[in-house]
Amino acid sequence: MFVGSPSGSATTTRKAQLRAAGGNVTDIVHLPLPLVRVFVRWGRRIGSSRVNLSVSDVHGPAAPLWLAGARMLEAVPVAPLVPLVPISVAALSYGGSLAVAVNADAAVADLDLVAAGMQRSFSRYRELAALGEHLPMP
What we know:
This protein is of the alpha+beta class. It has helices at 8-20, 33-48, 111-130, and strands at residues 53-59, 66-67, 70-71, 87-94, 97-104.
């Protein structure tokens, strides 16, 4: 736990309050609504200029899905791009497999380096899994 961070129970309580309120940020931030709106606008403007990668990891169903008597063989995630974020990566598990999709803006010059790095990492993970070893923790 980090110094100055809320305890686990405080975080759980705050998250429960947020869910119970339908996701309104003002329920956990005790500031006047006009001030909250100013901070949110500022965060969107400043934050979006500092983000260059979006990552999404979705746990799909472990059991196969069926539609009209046909089994869905694979699921591939869609990694949509958002304004000012040039690379988006999505991972989706389905039926014991993992699919990863990368979507990039045309201006991204070194996408082949990203793909090569991802390929090396997944190859190493497969090697470790075949040996029955756990992934190294950073």
